[in-house]
């Protein structure tokens, strides 16, 4: 068994049991965004969190142990994503990436936004013309150092 197998087990159990990610997050005690990323193989759970996830999804002990192993983050199967929703984020960065970079540098100076000291919130935003996806990302600014 490998971490991808565990992700497939979690996704299958979630569908079969009709479990919502927000409900899993509430039981784990963390945000739905972080817990979902963890269940999909992008974050490391501690023992207590992994045990909780294991109980929710009916995972065997080997799978619970794998939830506690540091994953290969950002491990999409292709360089350019083919899933339409994920591709839109790729497209968004292709179009607005230089704008993000320019505006962050203008506001903060030379550096990067952390994806480690990071949080995200995703909400549905009602709109008469069609509901919108509202995503807020907050990452610590890390200035480049001179030496």
Automatic annotation (TrEMBL):
InterPro entries named in the record: Cyanase, Cyanate_lyase_C, Cyanate_lyase_C_sf, CYNS_N, Lambda_DNA-bd_dom_sf
One Pfam match: Cyanate_lyase
Which keywords fit this entry according to its UniProt record?
A: Lyase
Top-level EC class as recorded in UniProt: lyase
Q: Which CDD domains match?
A: Cyanase_C
Catalytic activity, per the record? cyanate + hydrogencarbonate + 3 H(+) = NH4(+) + 2 CO2
Record-annotated Cyanate lyase C-terminal domain positions: 75-147
Molecular function via GO? cyanate hydratase activity; DNA binding
| Location of the active site | 88, 91, 114
Q: Give the superkingdom in one word.
A: Bacteria
- SUPFAM superfamilies this protein is in? Cyanase C-terminal domain (SSF55234), lambda repressor-like DNA-binding domains (SSF47413)
EC number(s) on file: 4.2.1.104
Q: Which PANTHER family match?
A: CYANATE HYDRATASE
Spell out the family assignment given in the record's similarity comment.
Answer: Belongs to the cyanase family.
The free-text function statement in the UniProt record for this protein reads:
Catalyzes the reaction of cyanate with bicarbonate to produce ammonia and carbon dioxide.
- Write down what this protein is called: Cyanate hydratase
Q: Which organism is it from?
A: Sulfurisoma sediminicola
């Amino acid at each position: 068994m490998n971490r991808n197998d565990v992700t497939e087990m979690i996704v299958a159990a979630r569908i079969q049991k009709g479990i919502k990610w927000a409900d899993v997050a509430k039981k784990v005690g963390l945000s739905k965004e972080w817990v979902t990323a963890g269940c999909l193989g992008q974050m490391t759970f501690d023992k207590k969190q992994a045990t909780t996830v294991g109980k929710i999804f009916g995972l065997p002990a080997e799978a619970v142990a794998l939830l506690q192993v540091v994953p290969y983050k950002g491990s999409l199967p292709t360089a350019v994503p083919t899933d339409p929703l994920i591709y839109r984020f790729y497209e968004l960065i292709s179009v607005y990436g230089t704008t993000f970079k320019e505006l962050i540098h203008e506001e903060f100076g030379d550096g990067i936004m952390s994806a480690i000291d990071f949080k995200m919130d995703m909400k549905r935003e009602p709109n008469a013309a069609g509901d919108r996806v509202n995503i807020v990302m907050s990452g610590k600014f890390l200035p480049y150092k001179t030496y």
